[in-house]
Amino acid sequence: xxxxxxxxxxxxxxxxxxxxxxxxxxxxxxxxxxxxxxxxxxxxxxxxxxxxxxxxxxxxxxxxxxxxxxxxxxxxxxxxxxxxxxxxxxxxxxxxxxxxxxxxxxxxxxxxxxxxxxxxxxxxxxxxxxxxxxxxxxxxxxxxxxxxxxxxxxxxxxxxxxxxxxxxxxxxxxxxxxxxxxxxxxxxxxxxxxxxxxxxxxxxxxxxxxxxxxxxxxxxxxxxxxxxxxxxxxxxxxxxxxx
Length: 243
Hints:
The protein has helices at residues 11-20, 40-49, 69-84, 103-115, 132-142, 160-170, 187-194, 232-242, and strands at 3-8, 24-27, 54-57, 89-92, 119-122, 146-149, 175-179, 198-201, 204-207, 213-214, 217-218, 227-230. By secondary structure, the chain is of the alpha/beta class. Helix 2 links the parallel strand 2 and strand 3. The chain is globular, with a radius of gyration of 17 Å. It starts with a strand and ends with a helix. InterPro entries: CutC-like, CutC-like_dom_sf.
């Protein structure tokens, strides 16, 4: 059975992911920004209410992954707090202005995860590096657990060739988690064309909040609805397909 990780934006998503039969959760806030660090309260409640492993996003802001020293201080403080609160791993990514992996910060985060017996997951910052194979080999040397990647494509369907190549060449040395655009419609094709053993998706639906807009005032961030939640029935169907 393929491992299904749900990209969750809050406690309700976590509860629904477990109810659907998902194997693992990546816990975030602000999914519309690509996922930011969750609050400690959300993680604490999730650890109390669910049994499947929770990977915590460590990302202090939107945009790219080139962080200054103040941002890094916050990230490492968050990381330690999350691990002590029960996270089973951390998702993170550090890049230099030139588009290379920031190896000092990356090594430090991997070592922190090892101290807690937790998974170290380099997220889709990897899809922005200029030298993916060289980066892969260095991550393997450092003992990184897993890479969340679209194969450096704008979405997973445009990165299938790279994913298939990397899974074949490096899949016994590091885990690959395919993400970005995973849906019920393409699950089977992704697996058939890549040989991946893990997939990552949100399977979201949109919810209306009647207080989102008032005349010219609007807090809506999508034309599809007011805010998004992982859709229970879609996740259940995904689990069934992947069995």
